[in-house]
Amino acid sequence: MAVEPLSLAALVGVSTLPDVAGSAWVKALGWAGQAFFSGRVLVQWIASERARRPVAPHVFWWLSMGGAVLMSAYSVLRGEVVMLPAYVVTLGIYMRNLWLIHRPDSRKESSPMLVVVLGLLIAVGPYAMGLIDTGGRAIPELPWLALAIVGEALWIGRFMVQWHHAERHGKTDFPAAFWWITIVGSGALLAYSLHRGDHVFIFGFVTSWVAPARNLMLHHRHLKASQ
Fold first, then answer.
1. Which of 33, 98, 209, 220 might form a disulfide with 71, Cβ 3.0–4.6 angstroms?
2. Is residue 7 part of a domain?
3. Which one has a higher pLDDT value, 55 or 15?
4. CA–CA dist 193, 83 (Å, integer)
């Protein structure tokens, strides 16, 4: 017996998903998510300037979790399934970093690949199995879809690099590679967001260049000073 896919539009009490996707409350949800992410960048930047090297204060991970939850919901309601995996996967990595802060003796007990696979299954699985519809949102053309997938892979990959660094050194800070991957990944996702015309995503990726550049400067200054 075939299972009818869950209609997101019916779930929130409207006739079609575009009625949801373009509504003020969904846009507010997205902007709230970006506010969390902007807040984490500001907190991390201030803490790093004070430490004179890139660091990640505890609140950075809490703000990251809040932003990931809100942006996951926004991606679903906007019918942007392509953007969803990065938020779901990195949510698990944020939780792991908080666990590592409070339980430093738990190092090397978990694998980032397990979190990535589980996150991808949660994000994409219901759509792939036809349990949830996409609300009729058009699938992007193949070149744009490929670009978005590359951007998502880089966006997730940077936190896999950070996870490996944290597990190895017992500190939830960032290696230089994290910032380089962020710059490249945000460029790819910015191009995709501009193509899709989503201002919430555009804002997030336009503003994700400055902090990495400054953190790279702090990283190299710290290395030079420590030599």
1. 33
2. no
3. 55
4. 10
